[in-house]
Amino acid sequence: MRAAVLRGGRMVYRDDVPDPVPGPGQVLVAVRSCGICGSDLHFAAHGDEVVAMTERVSAGAGGMDVDLGRDVFMGHEFSAEVLEAGPDTETHPAGTLVTSIPVVLSGKGVEPIVYSNSTIGGYAERMLLSAPLLLPVPNGLDFRHASLTEPMAVGLHAVNKSNIAPGETALVLGCGPIGIAIIAALAARGVESVVASDFSPKRRELATAMGAHRALDPAQGSPFDTVKPAVVFEAVGVPGIIDDVLLRARPGTRLVVAGVCMQPDTVHPFFAIAKEINVQFVLAYSPEEFADSLRALAEGDIDVTPLITGEVGLDGVGAAFDDLADPERHCKILVTP
Ligand SMILES: [Zn+2]
């Protein structure tokens, strides 16, 4: 079958990947749509660092079992159609549109569908999912939109972790896909004052389309000169941002760090101590939040149409990875095999 794989830092098209065979509890599905995630771009460029950092943080608990010298399968934001179930496995009828949290259960345990030499992800014609984890896509939600359940769940989780009340002001720093997902979740929650900040005019426009009430250009001055937020969401992920927030935020601010900074970063604890700032780092989402995210899309509480800026086939994934570097042109590119 056809797939796009990471080989030597580039996404390469293949038409000779063996079809996966579903085992007990597994379901063979045909991928309908898979979003390209910023973490995939980062892994393509800096996979060795990601593997090394994961190794360190997991402290001997296994780390990340991936060999960058071999082809790597990726793609964790997908919707798919049920084809057939493995032995002794009950599932939805063939043709049902589904999505799932990106893990598959096998004899080896829980395998993440993220970066793997063997577990096929969403940049492929077909892949394996686990029957008990399948969520049928309700309300006739478009398969392209359904594939964005995963990135939107990341935003929902960050917002849930913040415990923000509707009357509090939120400031979202960075309007890439994570910042945009946070903005959408804040708007869906009914937060009355959502302020976004990004250098890119296109991204500020997108932030407004997704529910931000104001979008500021940080080149014109610190957003903290304009707003006094109760909750700050950091979705940039570069060194220096956290310290700047600690310096400028008002006492009692809650800072939610959703940006993924892979470099060491320096902070002045005294800035945070002096103002009793709460810092919460966040990652991913719970299975319940994933299901809530699908529901929000299917019920129209969140419309992801403005996010989708491109669509490519499996042979276009390499070029799409390059194109996503330009924030003026792209937010989400979908791979539709
Ligand atoms: Zn992702």
Automatic annotation (TrEMBL):
GO terms for molecular function: oxidoreductase activity. Residues 177-298 form the Alcohol dehydrogenase-like C-terminal domain. Residues 23-138 form the Alcohol dehydrogenase-like N-terminal domain. Keywords: Oxidoreductase. This is Zinc-binding dehydrogenase. The keyword Cell membrane does not apply. Transmembrane segments: none annotated. Coiled coil: none annotated. SUPFAM superfamilies: GroES-like (SSF50129), NAD(P)-binding Rossmann-fold domains (SSF51735). Pfam families: ADH_N, ADH_zinc_N. CDD domains: Zn_ADH8.
